[in-house]
TrEMBL record:
Enoyl reductase (ER) domain sequence ranges: 70-392
Keyword Oxidoreductase part of the UniProt annotation: yes
Protein known as: 15-oxoprostaglandin 13-reductase
A molecular function GO annotation: zinc ion binding
CDD domains recorded: Mgc45594_like (cd08250)
């Protein structure tokens, strides 16, 4: 048996035949060690190009060079060599990358104090496999489409461990919405929400990347869903998802509305804003109510990263209502991740899950295309202008005329 391996050698493809008697070259009988000085045949040292398209020697990526919650101040664009995948890795040509509120927490060094600049930015991407290591080739091949939740996504090419990659049917940005935003809502509500049919659920920032999923999963559980948002357009979007009571807090007083329309209180709150909104959510809890903290975006751009919260009477309020506050950080729930992703992908395939994507078509400066657009996309999200998950198109589909 012989096998054909294509490797890149000075810009052209070289065909190598392996096989024959153990320890000998199939064609000449020469011991293979004699030619390892000429060419290294391991997958980990050479690329197999996707559809024959050439992989450039250099690429652009975003690097955190200074710790700061100001993303533009913390992050810079750099031109570096395209990385080489290790034995168990994939080299992914990124087509789309996802923007998360936590991107600026990461650039501020809040998640891992031991991490010192420079380090790579970005958490999630989707694209094609253009190179891979030998072990990784047991599960993947060049041309496969994959999504991933791993650091270093804000780059034209990213090396991702094969075990952390998720096969997807196509390079659609909708799949990207599930990796962090969808998974956060799915797992948090399932593990910490204890949702029961007929309960009332409040979702803050409901028209955002993760809020849109919390609304849908709460509805699927048979709950009455309230969603806060900042515009009539977003309120209309929430209605289309089945949200029973969208509240545009720029035109309605949220506290008064909740007191008047929900005097018995809220059973479950999916909370991502923090500060005064969190205080209001605590005061609005029903007996045995559960408040899930998935973030506090209102404070991320400050020096401390934490919005002011008056919690002096919190123990009393929780005791009086037998209520609870529960924190959720996705990396602590990776044992639930595969099931969540698989379930959501099935829902999406069956048309039972809306994955709204905001690619910046209505943003100032237009659609988010190219890695440099990540800065605009972060600004767009923090200005509260996004509808759905903010996604940047890193590169359009590669077109190759190569006959390789």
């Amino acid at each position: 048996m012989s096998s054909l391996l294509l490797v890149r050698n000075g810009g052209r493809a070289v065909s190598l035949i392996r096989g024959g008697r153990r320890g000998t070259d199939a064609l000449s009988g020469v011991h293979p060690v004699a030619r390892r000085f000429i060419i290294d045949m391991s997958y980990s040292a050479h690329f197999m190009d996707f559809k024959g398209s050439s992989i450039p020697s250099s690429m652009k990526k975003l690097v955190v060079t200074k710790l700061s919650p100001n993303f533009r101040e913390a992050v810079s664009m750099q031109t570096v060599a395209v990385p080489t995948p290790g034995d168990a890795d994939l080299l992914v040509r990124n087509r789309f990358v996802g923007i998360n509120a936590s991107d600026i927490n990461y650039s501020a060094g809040r998640y891992d104090p031991s991490l010192k600049p420079p380090f790579d930015a970005g958490f999630e991407g989707i694209g094609e496999v253009v190179g891979l290591g030998l072990s990784a080739s047991s599960r993947y091949t060049v041309g496969d489409t994959v999504a991933y939740f791993s650091s270093g996504a804000f780059a034209e090419y990213t090396v991702v461990p094969a075990k952390e990659s998720v096969p997807v049917p196509a390079v659609k940005p909708e799949f990207l919405t599930l990796l962090v935003s969808g998974a956060t809502a799915y797992i948090a509500l399932k593990r910490l929400g204890d949702l029961a049919e007929g309960e009332t659920v409040l979702v803050t920032a409901a028209a955002g990347g993760t809020g849109q999923f919390a609304v849908q999963f709460a509805k699927q559980a048979g709950c009455h869903v309230i969603g806060t948002c900042s515009s009539n357009e977003k309120a209309g979007f929430l209605k289309s998802l089945g949200c029973n009571r969208p509240i545009n807090y720029t035109t309605e007083d949220l506290a008064k509305t909740l007191r008047k329309e929900y005097p018995q209180g809220i059973d479950v709150v999916y909370e991502s804003v923090g500060g005064s909104v969190l205080e209001l959510a605590v005061n609005s809890l029903a007996n045995k109510g559960r408040l899930i903290v998935i973030g506090f975006i209102s404070g991320y751009q400050t020096a401390s990263g934490i919005p002011p919260f008056r919690g002096g009477t919190l123990p009393v309020k929780l005791l009086q209502k037998s209520a609870s506050i529960r924190g959720f950080f996705l990396p602590h729930f990776f044992s639930d991740y595969r099931e969540a992703l698989g379930s959501m992908m099935q829902m999406f395939a069956k048309g039972k899950l809306v994955c709204e994507v905001d690619c910046g078509d209505l943003a100032q400066g237009g659609r988010f295309v190219g890695l440099e657009s990540v800065f605009r996309a972060v600004d767009h999200m923090y200005a509260g202008k996004n509808l759905g998950k903010v996604v940047v198109e890193v590169a359009p589909p590669a077109v190759s005329n190569s006959k390789l």
